[in-house]
Amino acid sequence: MSTPEASTSTLHGNEPVEPAFHRVSVGDLPPGCSIGPELYDTPRGIVSGIPKSNGTVERSSGLTDGVEAPGQPVKVIWVEFPPGSPDNPFSYTRRRKIAIMFCALFFAFCTALQGAAYAQGIPSMTRDLGTTEIEALAGVSLYPWGFALGPLVLAPITEEYGRYWAYVGAVAVYTLLHLTQSLAQNTATVLVGRFLMGLAGCIGSTVVAGTVSDLYMPEERGAPMALFTLCVVSGTGFAALFAYVEANPHLQWRWIGWIQLIILCIYFVVCILIIGETRAPILLRRRAKKLRESRGEQDGGRYTARSEVDKPALVTALKTSLKRPIMFLLLEPVVTFFGIWLALVWGVFFIEIAGISYVFENVFGFGTSAQGSVFWCFTIGGLLGYLGNFYQDSLYRKYYPTRGVEARLYAPMASGILFAVGSMIFGLTSVPTAHWIGPCIGITLLMTGAFAIYQTGFLYLSQCYGTNASSAIAGMSFLRIIVGSSFAMFTNKLFESMTPRWGLFLMGCIGLLLAPIPFVAYYYGPWIRERSPYSKILIAEEKQRVEAEMLLQQKTEAEVARVISGQSMRRNLSRGMSRAKSRPDPVRNESVEKAPETA
């Protein structure tokens, strides 16, 4: 890698080539910009490899990417945010961050609300459309299936075009798709609409987590992610309100869709006005483009954002986005076991959504409105989990210097056991001889444990895999949603064959078997990652990146110090000259004083 001090560079073999640009002082560049190496300009963009005569670019890894023609050497000037820049999402004002997070979290809330609100209207929908309950329950599973498949395609699109257009486009499509529920004349329209709504609504989970990473430093993400998890969980709980819509014979299932459509139309306008772009690479590309337009290459190089170098084509990014999460899921033990654990948690979650009506109607004789009230247990459990997050954050800050990212795992150690116990209580009390408060307590405890497990899955993997965290989380989420949501389709069969009591108790036993996962990750996480195919590469790349950044920072500081030292020397010299001019000349004064005597 060439440096600003280098006067020559090597393009082919050991043949030296004179640099095409003059040396530029750091002090002459715009704030936040620094002198970069000599890269190569090709028809597909700036690349860091060595263009060969056959039209390919050879990279340091030994891989080659095809390009139309060999590139030309070009000196780059890195474009970054100046310290404390108001354009840097990390430096946004507290009020602006809260406004953006409110918009993002409200969409996550709406997508979670729709998942459970649909289940409230199943009785009237089966009557009006003449369908079976099993066919209607398929809509409960198809909605999260869209959530599982959507990120595999949409993730590279959001990285290329930014968060803002992802939000605006997704909210618009998601809002309009509610018409498939409100105006449907057959079951097929409802089911297709549910799947497409899941594809659009996945932005409410995947991009919201990315927005948290855009706005907050790693040590600050605990509280925002806890709010995100609370919105997902409480959104399911607030679906209880739609039980009263279902109970009203003049409203029922179609108006469940209409009410959400009206709310989302208002939110769409707010989203356009407030959400804004938060992805730093997109903002830096825009800044680099403005600098290229205003200053050209007059400063001895081309203003370039780091994300513009070696940028893959969108088709290549889509292929990678489809392949890499599955590879992470199959080859990374940490992703695999967290995926299995969360798949079970989500499976029980959907069994609850689909089974609350079965248990409280057939076992306890609840009416439609009373059944909907049970969904408030989701919100209560989420609030308890949110309050427990503050203690987890204090433990993380205390033990992170010694335990690293494993300091995120204290809460899931307890929550894994709490989740299993809650499932067992829900099952064992789902009998006519028990009081109905027993299952409600079990659901609340279960959701309190699920809160920490769900949140940790995002935070732990995001810190373990750094820039590749989106692929790791997508792989984990794919397994979690596909497996977990499938449980809803056989809930009634499970209860009919095993009864709710033993079916839910079985889920609790499986949860107890998986509860040791956070303990294993806590004690052996670093050892496992060092021996995992992707993790060991990421660890090595992270070390190289940190060393390179430290070296670049040292060189930049030395260059700045040299400029400041030169300016200081010039100021001292000018001050000395001005003092010399203002001081009287003793030799001249003495000759003047002696002149009259001589005369």
Put the structure in a nutshell.
The protein folds into 2 domains: 9-79 and 283-306, no CATH class; 89-275 and 313-531, Growth Hormone, Chain: A (Up-down Bundle), CATH 1.20.1250.20.
Account of the 3D structure:
This protein is of the alpha+beta class. The protein has 2 domains: 9-79 and 283-306, no CATH class; 89-275 and 313-531, Growth Hormone, Chain: A (Up-down Bundle), CATH 1.20.1250. 70% of the residues lie in helices and 6% in strands. Helix 1 packs antiparallel against helix 3 (133-161), helix 1 packs antiparallel against helix 10 and helix 3 (133-161) packs parallel to helix 6. Residues 1-22, 51-69 and 587-599 have low confidence and may be disordered. It is found in: Membrane. The chain crosses the membrane at residues 98-117, 137-157, 164-183, 195-213, 225-245, 257-276, 328-351, 363-388, 409-430, 436-461, 473-490, 502-524. It comes from Kockovaella imperatae. Residues 569-599 are annotated as: Disordered.
